[in-house]
Every structure is written in C-alpha cells, then in structure tokens.
Amino acid sequence: MLAALVLTAQAPSGWVTVRTTQQAPILSGFAAVQPGTPVTIAALQPGVLTSLSITPGETVQPGQTIGLLGGPQIAAALATAQGASNAANTNLAAERGKFADHLSTKAAVAQAEAAAKAARADLSALRAASSLQSPVAGQVQSLTAGPGASLQPGQAIAVVQPAAGAWVKAVLFGSQAARLSPGMAARFIPADGAPAVSVTLRGVQGTQPDGGLVLAFSGTGLQPGEAGTLSLSLSPRPVLLVPSEALVLDDGRWWVMLHDAKGDHAVQVVPGEAEGAQTPILSGLAAGDQVIVQDAALLYHRGIAAQYQPPD
C-alpha cells in the first residue's frame, strides 16, 4: 500500500521516543486437571524421529526420554539459534568493553545482557525440544510413529496410560508457545480461588484446529476435574514499547507516524499484544525513533487524503 507517507503539514509536538525495556512475556490459557486418562506424547518441533526407546506395554516415568528428534530442520534451527547466541554474546562482550572505556552506559550493557540471556534461553529450549519425554508415569499403550518418521509440531508419537494421579491439560496460543520445552515451570491457578499449584511442562499432546497448542503438565496436589488457568513466564528479553494510541489501523495493517529528519511520515509496524497503555513493537521501528502520539490517526489520514486528487 503506502511505503512512506510524507506530510507537509506541521506536526504536533506530541511525539515520544521509542524505548527499549526488559520484558518477561507471560503465556496463559485455559487449563483443567485430568484424571488418569491416556496421555498422548507429541513432537514440539518439526524433525525426524531418529530414535525411539520404548515399546507397547513398557512402563515409563515422568520426564523419561522416550525418543529423539533430528534431521535437517532441527540441525538448521539449532545452527540459527547457536549463531544468534554467539552474536549476542559477542555484542555483550563489546558493550562491556566499551563501558570499561567509558564509551557505553549501564543501560546499554543491561540490554546486551538481556539479549544474550534470551538467545541462550531460545537455544536451550530448542535443544530440550529435540528430546521427547513422557509427561506422566504409566504404561505405553501404543506407538503411532517409528524411527525415521518425519514429524510436525503436535504430531502424535505414543500414547501412555497413567499409572495413577492427575495431570494438567492446558491450551496456549501464539508463536511463543511453540518455543516451550519440557521441564519449564508454570502455575496452575484454580478458578475456585484455591491456592495455585506449581506444575512442570512434560510434553505436547497435539494442536487444535484453531491453532491452540495442547500441553501436558505434571504436579502434586492436583484435584481431577478442577478447572482454571495455566500461567507460564518466559525468559526476559528486550522489547520496544510505544504508547498504544500512537498505532493506526488501516486496511488490516498497523502504522505509526514517524517523526525524523525526513519530516513526518507513516511507517508500517507489526505490534505485539497491548499491555495497558503500551504496546510492544515486533518490527518496523528501532530504539531512539520518535513516533507521534498526539492526533496520530488524524495526521495519518490527512496524509492519505493529500495523495488523491479530486475528480474533474
């Protein structure tokens, strides 16, 4: 549509500087405690099932590795994540060096540290996701895939009948849900006001038609039939924040009015989920950019009107 909408009208003084902050995203979704019903073990990442160490009738324990994922997709994803982690570590070392020479700030070093930590967390999650684990203690009922099978996220591999006890079935949405890995801690918050229960992610059960990822969590003190919310905190990472009122929606796409040396013009952005009066920006802006907040929508649409000539 519009690559850059430049305005000749005088801009209002109400602009703000895009800032970077550290944010620990929280994933949450509906969850319910399941009795000892069969649990499906599924892949978290696309890949090839390189090994499978269980057979029908065998007993497994919570967190026991039952197979491994490999293949070109896993190798490429690991190489990318390793490269991102190496680059983040190099940048951190550079920032620390500049700070020692009084050429950087504590804020810049802190940002680099957070970025390096987030990159390491992504790499660790990907490595953990290549290991397929049983969510519960029980007996293997059946296998739905064998060594050499090409698997997609959520594709079933085995079904386990729990020996006893209950487990939490939760549904989470969004691209970040696909980056989870077994062993991550979460909280199950009962809807009836009972105390929250600490639980541990054990594996994926599958993917719903609406895109929701069905996950299995284990814990103690769970009451079968109890419903509530599953809350899981991800590693802190740097994000760009702008006031939500700076965003303009036009024809299904989001824009902000950028104030820079070229004047005042529209740039397309990809926002994340709004958090109160602030919205994280996933792409389209950089730290230090100045975006117009006051009358942003009016200024944007005034610029569009200037692109058209009235008919003769």
From TrEMBL:
InterPro entries associated with the record: MdtA-like_C, MFP_Cation_Efflux
One of the GO BP terms on file: plasma membrane copper ion transport
SUPFAM superfamilies found in the cross-reference section: HlyD-like secretion proteins (SSF111369)
Domain Multidrug resistance protein MdtA-like C-terminal permuted SH3, residue spans: 239-295
Record keywords, A-Z: Transport
Signal peptide annotation: none
Annotated Gene Ontology cellular component terms: cell envelope
Pfam family, one: RND-MFP_C
Name assigned to this protein: Efflux system protein
Organism listed in the record: Acidocella aminolytica 101 = DSM 11237
Upper classification of the organism: Bacteria, Pseudomonadati, Pseudomonadota, Alphaproteobacteria, Acetobacterales
